[in-house]
Amino acid sequence: MKIKERIRGYLPVVIDIETAGFNCKTDAMLExxxxxxxxxxxxxxxxKDTKHFHIxxxxxxxxxxxxxxxxxxxxxxxxxxxxxxKEALGEIFQAVRIEIKNEECTRAILVGHNxxxxxxxxxxxxxxxxxxxxxxxxxxxxxxxxxxxxxxxxVLAKAIRVANIEWEDANAHSALYDTQKxxxxxxxxxxxxxxx
Length: 196
Hints:
Helices cover 38% and strands 23% of the residues. With 196 residues, it is an alpha/beta fold. α4 (143-151) packs across α6 (175-192).
C-alpha cells in the first residue's frame, strides 16, 4: 500500500509550533518541528523524517510574557541557535515536497493537536517569508478529535497516557517532543483502523 491510497492522495506531516502568543499575524513563531509519516509494506504508519528548528522572532513580532513563561523559551538565549522563519520553513517545505513527489501524493496535510492553531501560524509565516506552502490551505487531521473518538480524551498528555504511550511532563511544550508524541499517537490510531 502507498500512503497516497490511505488519505486521499495526501501526505500526512505532523507539525507542532511553539509561539509567543495566540495571534498568528502578530505573535512570534519561536520553534517548529515537522515529522513526515511513512507507511511500510504491511500498510503500517510510522514516524519517518524529522525537521526541527528554533526560530528568531520576525521583525516587530509581539512576545507575550505569559506565553514565554508557559513554554519556557528564552528568546535571547544564544544556545537556541535560532534561524529565521524563512530558513526553517524553506528546509521543511523542501523536504515535504521531495516526500510528496516520492510518495506520488498531491500535497501535504497538516496533522496536529489543535491543528488549526499550527496551520494558522504556518500559513502566516509562509506569507511573511513569501514561500509557497505545500500544505492544504484549510484541511487538517486533528489528533484532538481522533483522541476524543478513540480514547475519550482531548488533552495531549492525557490521550497519550490512555493510549499507553510513554510521556514525560518535563519535556512537554517543546515542539520536538510534542511533535514526536503526536506522531506516535496519530500512527497508533490510524494503525488501529486499517482499510483494505
